[in-house]
Every structure is written in C-alpha cells, then in structure tokens.
Amino acid sequence: MEPPERTPDAPQSQTNRSQSNSAIQTEVVSPNRTPDSSWAPDHGRRVTLEEYWEKWYENPYPDLDVSYEWNNGILEAKPLHNARQIGLCNWFLTLLHRYVETFDHTSLINLETGFILKIEDESDPSGERVQVRKPDIGVILNSNPVSWGALDQRHFAGVCDMVVEAVSDSTLVEVLRDTEEKKRDYALGGVKEYYILDPDGERMRFYALAPDGEYEEIPPDANGVILSNVLAGLQFRVDDLQRKPRLVALALDEVYSEYVIPEHHVAVTRADAEAAARRQAEERVEQAEAQAATEAAARRQAEEQVKALEAKLARLSNGSA
C-alpha cells in the first residue's frame, strides 16, 4: 500500500468553504478532536473525482472494512456505526421499504451507494463545491429529474429527495459532520428532507427544506407523530424509533396501517367484521329461539287453561243434569 498523500485535517478544513462556515470549521479541526483513522488509511487523501470513481468509490482494500466519500477533492472515510445505530437505521429502512412497496413512486439507495451533491460556493474557483455522499438511506422520487434504476448505474447522478443518516458519535468531529456540515450542505445542495437518527434520542432531528433554502425542523404533532412533506402518507411516531415495534403490530396501528402491510390490516379488519357479524347472527338466533320458547310456553299455558275451563264446564253441565 503506498503511503497516502494527506492534507492536514483536510476533511474538515477544505479551503473552499465559505467564510460563514468558519465557526464550525474552527470547532471541527481542533487537534484534540481528530478522529482515529487508522482503520481508514486514505482518510484525508486528495484525489480527483476521476480517480475517486476509478479507485476509491468502492473499497480498494479487500482486507479493510472502509468506505470513502468524496468532499470536493478530499477522501472522507465514513465512520462505522455501532449495533444500536445499525438496528435503528435498519428498522427505519424496513419502514421505508414498506412505504415504497405500497405506493410505488419512490426508490431507495443504501449499501454504500453514492449520489452527487453540487453546492454553489463563490469562494471556490469553479463557483461550486462537489461532493459524493453515501447516505445510510437515500430516497429518490420517480418525479426526480435524474433517472435511477438502470442496470449499469452504480451511483446516482442527481440529488436525493430525502437523506437519512444515523448519527456517528464516536468523536465530536463525526457528530458535527452529521449534525452541522452535512445538514448545511444537504440544504445547499437541494435535499428536500434530512433525517438524523440517534438511538439515544439526543440528536434525533427531522428537517424539511424551507423556501429560503435552509432547513426547518419538522415538529411532531400532538400525538408525537412526524409527517413527511416529501413522501405523502409517510408518518411515524418518534417514540417508535426507540421501541422499534414489529411490522405486524404497525400494520394494525392507525399511524402506519395505510402503508405498512395494508393487506394485513384489511384482512384483520375483514376477519373482525366477519366475526362480529357471526356473533350478531348467533345472538339473533339465540334471541329467536328464546322468543320461540317463550311463545311455546305461553301456548302450553293457554292450552292448559282452555282444558281446565272445558273440564270445569263439563262438571257444571253434569251437575245441572
């Protein structure tokens, strides 16, 4: 392995950032907060975009579990997630899979698939910064101006409509990358919604792009439910991101039943309705049988009364004779 060509703290101190980001930049590049990149030997290497596609987009080292994003000429290693972060991200991905399967107007990317982000930046000689980001989950609407899904596509050349990242929190640098840098750049690049998942809940945030080009936080409604502006019908309880209920439970929950296995909800509802109808029919039969028994008892009583009267009249007739 050839020694990497590095630039000091390059992923956080790119020279093409605008002055408005200097406060964040200063915070990130503190030497005491530099992440351990021994597992990613090329973190910070300067390469061209062509070199990135050729060698670095896919992991060049079979013995290392590392994936690189490209930030305007600098390789940035994607931090590794812990078990809780993976579990939360997988649960939310499953939720999105059910949404896609139900409505069929959206595609998802993950598994280290990248998309291209272009950001206007007057401080850059080219007038823009270019990034290749590999989101934990990317959502692409069928209405997106850039097509996705061809067999020869290994990355998305457009901008995802929604991006979901599980916060990386092993160092402050990684926290700021997800909660500040990526948040800022995704907004500038036109990502319509940005969700940050955090198993601890402290940094859990859901953002929608406002008309001014900045993110506004999506507040939960009175029942603690987040409603997506991009994916019509997608809604979920914030608390469920901690509990991670099973799909069969979500399918019967009114918050999720429209898109999480709606057939199951319909089947259960139909079965419940049929069971209720059977109970009502049985109750009607029981009521009819009880009514018939009552009427039969009344007839027997009337017949006995008639017989008693006839016997009495017979006795009276015999006495008068």
Mean pLDDT: 82
Question: Unreliable runs, pLDDT <50, ≥5 residues?
Answer: 1-35
Structural class: alpha+beta
| CATH C-level class of the largest domain | Alpha Beta
- Give me the count of strands: 13
Residue share in β-strands? 15-25%
Q: Helicity, in percent?
A: 25-40%
CATH superfamily descriptor of the largest domain: tt1808, chain A
Shape: rod-shaped
Q: Span from first to last CA?
A: 137 Å
* Discrete helix count: 7
**Strand order of the biggest β-sheet:** 3-6-8-9-10-11
CATH fold category name of the largest domain: tt1808, chain A
| CATH architecture descriptor name of the largest domain | Alpha-Beta Complex
What does it look like?
- With 321 residues, the chain is of the alpha+beta class.
- It folds into 2 domains: 80-260, tt1808, chain A; 262-321.
- The chain is built from 7 helices and 13 strands.
- A 6-stranded mixed β-sheet has the order 3-6-8-9-10-11, with helices on both faces.
- It starts with 21 loop residues before the first helix and ends with a helix.
